[in-house]
Specification:
The chain has about 220 residues and is an alpha+beta fold. Helices cover about 45% and strands about 25% of the residues.
Length: about 220
């Protein structure tokens, strides 16, 4: 457990850390949607209605023990330079894309690192489970909206569990926030990608008090 948290912390300190003191609409919204992921885990009617196999439901059951009321840490990743970012993430020249193709990739840019980490670092069952527990909600676009991804660390039964929440513009005046379970290796995955620092920035926006961490670590 201690090694996992230490590795996670090191991996996510991509460009420094700065704790935000002012109200953070993105963080508050991310926490709300993370709690919705937790509701899906405990909703047997939902799982049955979706017809997911027993083995996937079993993997999802681990999140029943996550305490979504105690956020241990949170990081914000901001994305910029859309055309360059699309080329770096998707290996595609924007001039080759149709309008529909470009719109789709732009709308999913903030979510892409979460999906890629789950598909490349996890098992097929884990990837399917994360898709089963994905929850989205659309909002009126806030003033000065910035495409971004939040990584939230919660305390689980056996280890720290992470929820990723991606914020993307999906209409002229609307944005969509999408939450899903994500492997802690997302930080390492990002660190190893050939992305120039001007394409994204990462900052720690929240950390739990020391006494909470000691409780999690069993000290």
């Amino acid at each position: 457990m201690k090694k996992l948290l230490a590795l996670l912390m090191a991996a996510l300190m991509l460009t420094g850390a700065a704790l935000a003191e002012e109200d953070d609409w993105y963080l508050d919204t991310a926490e709300e949607l993370a709690a919705c992921v937790g509701e899906l885990v405990g909703d047997e009617a939902y799982l049955n209605a979706m017809g997911y196999p027993v083995e996937l439901v079993g993997m999802a059951h681990d999140y029943v023990y996550v305490d979504f009321t105690v956020l241990l840490a949170a990081w914000r990743i901001e994305w910029s330079e859309t055309d360059d970012l699309l080329q770096a993430l998707f290996a595609v020249e924007t001039g080759e894309l149709s309008d529909a193709g470009r719109d789709y990739l732009v709308q999913n840019t903030a979510r892409w690192p979460l999906l890629r980490t789950n598909s490349e670092e996890g098992t097929a069952e884990w990837f399917a489970t994360s898709q089963m527990l994905t929850y989205s909600r659309t909002y009126i676009m806030p003033e000065d909206f910035q495409t971004c991804t939040y990584l939230l660390l919660f305390n689980g039964k056996m280890n720290a569990e992470m929820i990723g929440v991606a914020f993307s513009q999906t209409g002229e005046e609307t944005i969509t926030a999408t939450a899903l379970p994500v492997l802690p290796t997302v930080g390492e995955w990002l660190r190893l990608q050939p992305l120039d620092s001007f394409l994204f920035s990462c900052e720690q926006v929240m950390s739990a008090p020391e006494n909470v961490w000691r409780s999690v670590l069993g000290e």
